[in-house]
Amino acid sequence: MSSRQDSGRVIPLPLASHHSASRSSITCKYRCGNACQHEAPNTSGNAYFGDIVESVLSRRGALKATGALALTVGGASLLTGTAAAAPKPGPADGPVRGAVPGTDFAPVAPNTQDAVVIPEGYRQGVVIRWGDPIVEGAPEFDFANQSAAAQEKQFGYNNDFAELIALDRTGSRSLLVCNHEYTTEEHMFLGYDENNPTEEQAKIAWAAHGLSVVLVERQDDGSLKPAPSRYNRRITLTTPFEVRGPAAGSDLLKTSADPTGTKVLGTQNNCSGSLTPWGTILSGEENFNQYFAHADSVTDPVAQERLARYGIEGAESTRKWERFDERWDIAREPNEVNRFGWIVEIDPHDPTSTPVKHTALGRFKHESASIQVADDGRVVAYTGDDERFDYIYKFVSNGKVKQGTSALARRHNMSLLDDGTLYVAKFTGNSPESEIDGTGTLPSDGHFDGTGEWIKLASGTESFVPGFTAEEVYVFTRLAADKAGATKMDRPEDIQPNPVNGKVYCALTNNSNRGSEGNAAPDEANPRVGNKHGHVLELDDDTTGTRFGWNLLLVCGDPNDAGTYFGGFDKARVSPISCPDNVAFDRHGNLWISTDGNALDSNDGLFAVPVDGPERGFVKQFLTVPKGAETCGPVVRDKVVTVAVQHPGEIDGHNAGNPASHWPDGGTSQPRPSVVAIWREDGGEIGRG
Ligand code: FEO
Ligand code: CA
Ligand code: CA
């Protein structure tokens, strides 16, 4: 183990980074269609273009590459213990006891174990795995003999968002709702031939996408187990959805299978999401572009521009589904692609309900959407577009929320997101541009902060973007936002309001292209060149208004790197954190952050951080996930934490014939994406000593 001496104590060093990319190429291929290997699709001439980089560089002299570490360590794993043995606390050198309620646990050190590693005094158990039976009549999972018919009744693949909806006061019975973001065929099928997938493999993948709803019951030992129930449901790529809002029925959404433009089969690449105050689930359709083939056959320049802005390009698709259903072929069905990229809403309390696609929230690579209820009862939905140099949006409803989660209230409230105003964010820093030097060094006022403006894009049938009809704003939202002059961000992922302090928190995962030739230069809201580790933004929003204040709560990475910032907290005491992705809150208002693509040579993890008081910025790692996995969908309740462990073992050079992970079943088993629950051995509250 590498270490340094500090005040007589031996402190494990944060792990060094020497990756140019923090995610395996197989994950990039199947999850986002190799987005990072292409130029970012935002080529608009918004503020801060490449020529500004030149001037910044010449003004500031030699610009050090962001992520350069003060201390570097070889690629050695810091931990060699087993999953059963909780690791020693990480680099946090302060009192781990007596901390803010909810974050009082001994932090887990960075590691590369093939296990979920949790703090001392906690226990863990798998809740549900890919292929586990959900719907009545579902067979047990049989890796070697999969079928679409079985998968349609079983838990889907690559769980991302997860939510627990309590059905009683004690939380002994809850509905677990999960997204299944994408399929990794090379890991799902032994001997998979990517040039010649079978029709059954394609249909299994259609059934492995979408969402699952399953009843889970808390056991006497604190674990959560699935149970049969009338709620249990699979939503897949063949489940009918109703298109609602101002673009429903648009010519842009009509296909030969749906001449009304109001009925879509399925949802895909569902990434993060949220629970609404009325008890439904919002889910974001993210990297939908990669599933569509033959964009290269399009010759109309307007259509070409619209496709290119969403990264839709090339001949055959990665999975080659177009061979089995022509809706995936843009040459045959040019509008099918316009029917994905929306926020969807499902009612898990009513298993017969038809899920909805909400066009009023715009079409882009939605990470998620989450709701804040304004004082006057209108609702605000915040949503990010997860692509390098894309934007943050909000929607404000015209209608007001009905209290409660009754069927009547849910029906009314599910219509709120169909009628309102869509805005995009423009950020302005309050420090001189010359002080934003691209290294992450704080400007002289001590903060990356400023003000911002929500720019109106469309409201109902009215467009506020010159040259765009309202329908065009909703369906080609990225292009409308370009024209409106939105601020290019470093991959806006989850964005959620904190139910305790009312502020809104957004994870910006990373952006290796920030400040590179031809791309946007650093600005105060995205202050680092080649932003490898990401940052976390705190918004003080005027809810239904058009102004906000903002600051960066965290500038992530190795705390030994001078270009990191932890809310002003002592960096010697925090856990290293890299590539923030999903955010959640405990009942105390602490922010919990899961990571995707840790670029510090540790497995991804879940972190807790107070956002107010003297421990603001005291980041502590609560868990790590197994090799090759991403930590997703954190839920933090008083007595239990759950995370979705996505793509375990998804490491280059490995496939189903040569698995890199055997989690969760051990031995020589295939890895299976799963949801895990963590609770305290003594039955006490999470993070309370
Ligand atoms: Fe699916 Fe933006 O992560
Ligand atoms: Ca400032
Ligand atoms: Ca994500």
UniProtKB/TrEMBL annotation:
It comes from the Bacteria. SUPFAM superfamilies: Calcium-dependent phosphotriesterase. Coiled coil: none annotated. Transmembrane segments: none annotated. This is Phosphatase. Residues 511-533, 649-673 are annotated as: Disordered. PANTHER family: DUF839 DOMAIN-CONTAINING PROTEIN, SLR8030 PROTEIN.
